Amino acid sequence: MKIVVDAGHGGFDNGARFEGRREKDDNLALALAVGKILQDNGVDVEFTRTEDIYQTPYEKAMIANDANADFFVSIHRNAMPIPGTGSGVETLVYEDRGIPGTMARNVNQELADLGFTDLGVSTRPNIVVLRRTKMPAVLVEAGFIDNPADNALFDEKFDQIAQGIADGILSSITAAEEEMLYRVNVGVYENKQYAEKLLNQLKNQGFPAFLNYNHGYYFVQVGAYQNLSNAIAMEQQLRNAGYSTYIATE
Fold first, then answer.
1. Catalytic pick from 90, 110, 141, 235?
2. Whole-model pTM?
3. Where are the domains of the chain?
4. Domain 2-178 has CATH 2.40.50.220
């Protein structure tokens, strides 16, 4: 199981600011702490950044895609146009369903237990790191940086907040593993016509191929297996037939 943990903003992009406090700094500290807890629990973790550098949201998404990660978690702080008028934790998803919806609720509940107001799960399909990642993704807004009460809670219970986010992720992974399917991917296209051409070619050769449209891409896949060894066997057949493949989970 691999998770990419993203510290939002960075470099010249400070994110939200309040009385000298910069969101990018809080994000990095919390992302590193969450990632360390996940690693201590046996999860393979990759960070988008471990220092104060700038990456575009698209670059962050591509880091996760190139890593063939199973999950993507982005850490942020929230803010309002009028400081002090917002308070609480909110988690954003591309679509409020499946594993991302479950993970978002689990994380929110963990942080609500520490004293944050639970503002719920929000669907934000236009956020690049949620739209362009190929795996389940969530963006955690860990309190409002422009609210002194939220900042006090963030500072006083920092370790517990990191543990709570990690626990919400880990409990979601356990649920996901119970329902996980291994899909053998043969191609990924933005153009449906190209995807259908490969699909028909595979079907003509007797492979159980189908299209899966997700986050703006057409995935040409062959089979969906509960047993990893069966997926690997199909992958080998495809490679023997000259196809490039990779196994993904859903």
1. 141
2. 0.75
3. 2-178, 180-249
4. no
